[in-house]
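Section 4.2 – Deliverable D4.2 (structural model, holo form)

The reporting period included a commitment to supply a predicted holo structure for the target in complex with 4'-phosphopantetheine. Inputs used:
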Amino acid sequence: MRRCVCPGSFDPVTNGHLDVIERASRLYDEVTVAVLVNTTKQGLFPVEERMDMLREVTEGLGNIRVDSFDGLLVDHCRERDIPVVVKGLRAVSDFDYELQMAQMNHRLSGLETLFVATNPEYSFLSSSLVKEVATFGGDVRGLVPDPVLDRLVTRLRRS
Ligand code: PNS
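Output (structure tokens):
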């Protein structure tokens, strides 16, 4: 079975992430979407809720597992026998850091990284920008999946 991982914070998942996950799901038999548990940085959504949203928006694809991890991505992949990371590249500004991580992951364990060019419709999109715009009442419809939009509005109303 050909497996890959799409790792990230997904706080929350955007339509840009979903585009990359969908494309990975056509290239691989099984895609693990792995949510980083970052103990030093509190996100807007708890990790469990990020995972619930990811399950909800990817259930139609049929070959997605949603998981969480802490520590090194290479360890998570080794434990699950996953040889490839699939990541989206939005712009040149992503390239330096993504290249560094890909090279370090390869050096650490031979983990390969496959980059897909982000759909230009979403090349400006990030979870942090979505949160900032939504916090101040801006319209983020079409930038996040509808179930995420509902939860975003509810959560921001509470905070
Ligand atoms: O959505 P993000 O925050 O851009 O995702 C970054 C992520 C989670 C892919 C990256 O920070 C990561 O892999 N973190 C796990 C820790 C690790 O393996 N660090 C060494 C990378 S070379």
